[in-house]
Design a protein that fits this description.
3 domains; alpha+beta; five-stranded antiparallel beta sheet; Beta-Lactamase; Enolase-like, domain 1; 358 residues; Arc Repressor Mutant, subunit A
Length: 358
């Protein structure tokens, strides 16, 4: 007999489900128990925790039905059951009750995401914050610098045919690059080159500056003077769209994943760290999320990574002036506390966008 005073039942009845009331409540309780300790849940424990006035035999029948639907599985013959990826997906989509985030915590995050930080420092700090708050791996894609406008540039000579280029773009983005060139340059040569670029091109798009200089050199290669030649040689390297300026992502707190050994074995952790190292797969996932409407959740193989296994990704895009420029998220075990993690990811992404806009 169902106890209709049970708050879990009332909440379940108010949600569109593919299951009947009893099955929905039992699945929700099974997932909650599994998230708590990572162990299979037996019928006796489920009967006690669910607060339903029904027998263990009835629960076993319900579990058998959930197993036929592919929502739960028994890892061993005599063991209890755990949710499958499909079961966790149904739980997240239909049974999850997201906990509101405390105003005090929101205020703390807002204070720590200081708008006066440089872009990379701000993004790095956001990744660290979301990792610390969730005790998982925090990941944030660096916003693409497709419209970087030159504000100021300087060149400093270094030993062994190298130059340090210090370039300020937009309002406060600073890039330091060590350039490897074919000859030594004097401080005077580099100062003249910097003066020319700052006088002629301040406020213009960085890549358009490079293309303009190379085009001018091709048209007047015979008549170009030594100053202009130096400008082109060093600017070509300094303004090039190399690996340093391509969008990437920052990961903080990878070692937090080691704490979940019950859900993530050594081989799976190795696969996960390889994904972090290769970057291409993670950037591909972020590209799928950057224009999404709010939080996206990928459970297990939904992320599209080989060897991802019992892990989940929760992401949210962050925007500047209404335009999505990157994605913030966490990676953790599939048995994470989704109700607590989702709002943390959501609010941190929004506050990161606010800080970057300022």
């Amino acid at each position: 007999m169902l106890n209709r005073n049970n708050p879990d039942l009332i909440n379940a009845l108010n949600k569109p489900l593919l299951l009947n009331d009893r099955a929905a409540i039992l699945l929700k309780q099974l997932v909650a128990s599994y998230i708590e300790d990572g162990q299979p849940v037996g019928s006796k424990k489920l009967a006690q925790d669910a607060g339903l006035d029904i027998s263990s035999a009835t629960i076993r029948n319900v579990m058998s039905g959930l197993e036929k639907k592919g929502l739960v599985v028994a890892p061993h013959t005599s063991a209890g059951r755990i949710p499958t990826e499909q079961g966790l997906r149904l739980f997240v989509d239909s049974l999850l009750e997201v906990q509101p985030i405390e105003e005090e915590l929101v205020s703390q995050v807002q204070q720590q995401l200081d708008p006066d930080m440089e872009v990379n420092e701000l993004v790095n700090h956001a990744s660290q914050l979301v990792s610390e708050m969730t005790q998982m791996a925090g990941v944030v894609s660096v916003p693409k610098q497709t419209a970087a406008k030159l504000r100021h540039i300087e060149f400093l000579p270094l030993p062994e045919k190298r130059i340090l280029a210090i370039m300020v773009t937009n309002e406060k983005d600073v890039q330091n690059k060590v350039l490897h060139l074919d000859r030594e340059y004097t401080a005077d040569e580099l100062q003249q080159a910097a003066n020319y670029l700052n006088q002629q091109f301040t406020g213009q798009d960085v890549q358009q500056i490079r293309e303009s200089l190379l085009s001018d050199l091709d048209r007047s290669r015979q008549d170009v003077d030594s100053v202009m030649k130096t400008v082109v040689e060093v600017a070509d390297k300094a303004l090039s769209d190399d690996e340093m300026s391509k969008p990437e992502f920052i990961v903080q707190g990878e070692t937090n994943l080691v704490r979940y050994n019950a859900a993530t074995d050594r081989e799976q952790l190795q696969h996960l760290f390889e994904i972090f190292d290769r970057k291409r797969e993670m950037l591909g996932l972020f590209d799928r999320c950057v224009h999404s409407d709010g939080v996206k959740i990928f459970i297990g193989h939904e992320a599209g990574f080989e060897g991802f296994g019992d892990c989940s990704v929760i992401t949210a895009p962050y925007a500047i002036a209404g335009k999505a420029v990157g994605v913030l998220g966490v990676i953790g075990p599939a048995r994470m506390n989704y109700d607590q993690v989702i709002p943390v990811v959501d609010i941190t992404a929004k506050l990161l966008g606010d800080a970057l806009k300022q």
